[in-house]
Structures are given as structure tokens and as C-alpha cells.
Amino acid sequence: MGTWATGRYALMISDRSGMAFPYREMMQEWTGSWVHSSEYESKQPQLTPPYHSADAVALQHPRAQHKSGIVATLEPALWFVPGTAGTDITATPNTLPPETANEANKKRQVTLRLGTVTVST
Which region holds residue 76: left if phi is over 0, alpha if psi is between -120 and 50, else beta? Predict the structure, then answer.
């Protein structure tokens, strides 16, 4: 099998400028073009960005959420009647604003039903 010539006296045409340069001084760019070492431009770093793995957003083994029959109902009473401040409009006891935070918490009702168990507080 034959061997390649050394190119000691050979010339090669630059793909960028079209000029003839010594064969041994030619370089191949990342685009595949053969250019002289004085015309050579390396690949821009923006063209090879570093690898970033994706953010962990999804679960590996997800399951669908089943309806469990949970019903939560919050029924606060109407505590504030707009426009009654400084007027002689009387409100029913259920519509008066609570005087303390404890009274406000007592008026809130939570009903939670899990299967056949009912919890009321």
C-alpha cells in the first residue's frame, strides 16, 4: 500500500482568500474549510455551550390522585356590614363583627367527611 507525499514543495489554495499557501501551513477549520494559519479562526465558545441538566420538575414514579371523598366546608358568618360604621343601622347578631379573635374562631365551622367519619369543630 502506498504512502502519502510529504508536501514539501506543494501549494494549496485557501478556501477563505483564494491565495496559494504552502501545503504544510494549511489548517482545517471546524466548518471544514482549509485556510492558512494566518487566516485561521477557532470555533466561537458560544457555539459549544456547557451541558446543563434539566431542572427536576417531574416525579420519577407519579400516580394519579384518587377522589377520596374529602369535603371541606368553611362557613364563616357575615361579621361585617359595610356602610354601618357611624350610622344607626342595626344589624342582627350574626352580622356583627366579632369583638375578639377567639369569638371569630368560634364562629368558623369546619366540616370534614372522610368515608363514614364526620368531624366538626
Answer: beta
- How many Å is the maximal CA-CA distance in the chain? 114
Q: Are 19 and 13 in contact (CB under 8 A)?
A: yes
pLDDT digits (tens, 9 = 90+) for 90-101: 445 555 666 677
The tens digit of pLDDT for each residue in 28-61 reads 999 999 999 999 999 988 888 888 877 777 778 8
Closest by CA to 71, choosing from 38, 116, 35, is 116
Measured in residues, the chain has a length of 121
Vertex 80: Cα angle to 75 and 82 (nearest 5): 130
Say how far residue 59 (Cα) sits from the centre of its chain: 15
